[in-house]
Amino acid sequence: MVKKYKYGNPIETEAVIADISEENGVIEKVKFENNCFVYNMNDKTKVYGLGEANRGINKRGYKYVSYCTDDPSHTEDKESLYGAHNFIIIDGEEKLGIFFDNPGRVTFDIGYTKKNEIRVTPENIDMYVYVISADNKNDIVREFRKIIGKSYVAPKWAFGFGQSRWSYENKDRVDAVVKGYEDNDMLISSIYMDIDYMVDYKDFTVNEERFPNFKEYVRSLRDKGIRLVPIIDAGVKIEDGYDVYEEGVKNNYFVKDKEGKDYVTAVWPGLTHFPDFLNADVRKWFGDKYKILTDMGIEGFWNDMNEPAIFYSQNKVDEIREEIEKLTSENDDKLLDLRWKFSELANNIDDYKSMYHNINGVKVNHNKVHNLYGYNMSRAAGEAFKRIDKDKEYLMFSRASYIGMHRYAGIWLGDNCSWWSHILLNLKMLPSLNMCGFLYIGADIGGFGCNATEDLVMRWLALGVFTPLMRNHSAMGTRNQECYNFEDTEAFKNIIDVRYRLLPFIYDEYKKAIENDDLMFKPLSFVYEDDEMAGEIEDQLILGDIMIAPVYTQNTSGRYVYLPEDMTFVKFMKDGKIYKEPLKAGIHYVKVAVNEVPLFIRNGRNIKVVKESVIKDKSLRKSIMDCSVEYSEEDFEII
Ligand code: GLC
To answer: What's the rounded Cα separation, in Å, for the pair 609 and 639?
Structure first.
């Protein structure tokens, strides 16, 4: 049962699309005091949800702030990441799902200030609150997913392995990646184009010097089974003669300042304006621009910098310049303050508070609707794809997001690092994101920032073989982490082969989860409800008939696992063979070498995987890579 409550004067976020009538009274079981929603837990209550958030699957014991933030250092103390997903499930004596549909800043104190208290504090109270009660947490998820609408369906080819880096800045670099994978006989379905494919980082341009005959190039890679996937950034470069900029200015399509002038910020292209995606006309205009690239044969995109990320703004620079002059004229002791002043330039809250949207003719301060920005950028694209070709599935995933965006796009988990702890963080976010409707998801495998090591990339891939988006991506200046750049290329080849062997299973699980409004990745506690130990496991997940339990520590040759029921331990070995060992319920130490992919088959179940000989069949290489291959029954083996 879902109940809807209204507070103040809410913005219609369109996160929920079901028509639910408003209750008259106050929320039962949740107190509302001093602008804060308070719920009393007992010692055993668990709290799930919050989508792309830090820390555990059980969110108890910390504080999370919903405010889409471009912060590339996801250390344990961070309260905000790129997404804002205000849905929690309280799993105590009573089971409740609560969605706080508030696109401004919302703080979730989940037993941080007081051990047994949840305190949800919005910066402004204008919001709807949806309260879902059901007998169990799986039903709560289903009820919630029903009211927010079906999740975006990614094309099947987007389940193939993808290689990315900031940046393959010209055709030669992309060709080198193709060759690297080809020479090592490794399968690859997509190569990602980062900002350098554009002319001076101008959206919807292609630098013809770096990528001559782009349309032809896209087709030639497509003929090999590889798709090129370009990035689109939120900020539009201010430059006379650039049509997107000029049209935006002429039609008042950009976010404004208080006086109604186009707000000036700087991102990758230098000075930019932000399109006002919260306005339907702007969405249509910007969305239609994707056609420039789809006309060149592009079938997928990633939307970036859409929190929106701000490097600095004209206003803030002027303000800080003055302060710096004051500081330097005082005395040299103040030099340290200078350093802090510079770091205040990026993503400054004063900027977010100085920007204005035009939502259906009403001027709305950006800070109040901050979390809707990335959502509506991707919605612009999603809506445009339906106009461009309503029967075609395009790939679209975004960095910033809010619930509602899950109907138009997937997400990637932003700028993580080549840290072992980030393999685990990647795993933990999967079920939490599924609860909030995001099914097409994945992290930068191998880590975006910092230098990756061979073993880290291999171990991470052994988790990535299960995630819908399986993309290796890394930052400029870091060690090259394409699979062919490490020593044991044979092992990498085999791990990637495992992905393609599992692909029909993964894709099926993904589609089923969408159809049934279900989790694709379930915490053990969602499957083994009465098993207390299962409720505490945070590094294993259930995926249909299997359990996954990757190794995420360096210099280990295995890991401990808890089996809530008898299971068969399966390893895809380096030589392509499959190792199987029946194990009894309980705790086990399982050996998993760095070049092996482990999984566990649940008691009495099985899954179908493509035979190794089929994946190795050279005549099928192209159709396997573009995921168009039609397997017949004899192409599978049952494990
Ligand atoms: C941002 C993105 C990252 C991209 C970089 C350059 O940091 O999160 O994926 O590579 O910008 O465009």
So the answer is: 7
Task: Evaluate: CB of 351 within 6 angstroms of ligand 1.
Answer: no
Instruction: In whole angstroms, give the CA distance from residue 616 to residue 490.
Output: 13
- Tell me whether the omega of the peptide bond preceding residue 550 falls within 30 degrees of 0, making it cis: no
Instruction: List residues bridging with 272 in a β-sheet.
Output: 237, 265
Query: How many angstroms separate the alpha carbon of residue 121 from the centre of ligand 1?
Result: 31
Tell whether ligand 1 has an atom less than 6 A from the beta carbon of residue 415.
Answer: yes
**pTM of structure:** 0.98
Collapsed DSSP state (helix, strand, coil) of residue 354: helix
Quote the ligand 1 centre to 419 CA distance (angstroms): 18
Residues linked to residue 401 through DSSP beta bridges, in sequence order: 83
| Per-residue pLDDT tens over the stretch 563-617 | 999 999 999 999 999 999 999 999 999 999 999 999 999 999 999 999 999 999 9
Kindly state if the Cβ of 626 falls inside 6 Å of ligand 1: no
Q: Report the pLDDT value the prediction gives residue 314, as an integer from 0 to 100.
A: 87
Residues 577, 571: Cα–Cα separation, whole Å: 8
Confirm if 137 and 160 have CB atoms less than 8 A apart: no
Which residues lie below 8 Å from residue 452, measured CB to CB, with a gap of 6+? 418, 446, 474, 478, 479, 481
Closest atom of ligand 1 relative to the 164 alpha carbon: 10
> How far apart are alpha carbons 119 and 99 in whole angstroms?
14
Are 369 and 376 in contact by the 8 Å Cβ rule? The answer is: no
φ, ψ of residue 549 to 5 degrees: the values are -155, 80
Burial category of 324 from C-beta neighbours within 10 Å (exposed 0-12, middle 13-18, buried 19 and up) = middle
Residues 6 or more apart whose CB falls under 8 angstroms from that of 325 comprise: none
Determine if ligand 1 sits within 6 Å of the CB of residue 399: yes
CB atoms within 10 A of CB 115: 10
CA distance linking residue 382 with residue 364, whole number of Å? 24
Q: Helix, strand or coil for residue 78?
A: coil
* 101 C-beta closer than 6 A to ligand 1: no
- Identify the DSSP state of 195: G
pLDDT digit string, tens, across residues 269-320: 999 999 999 999 999 999 999 999 999 999 999 999 999 999 999 889 988 8
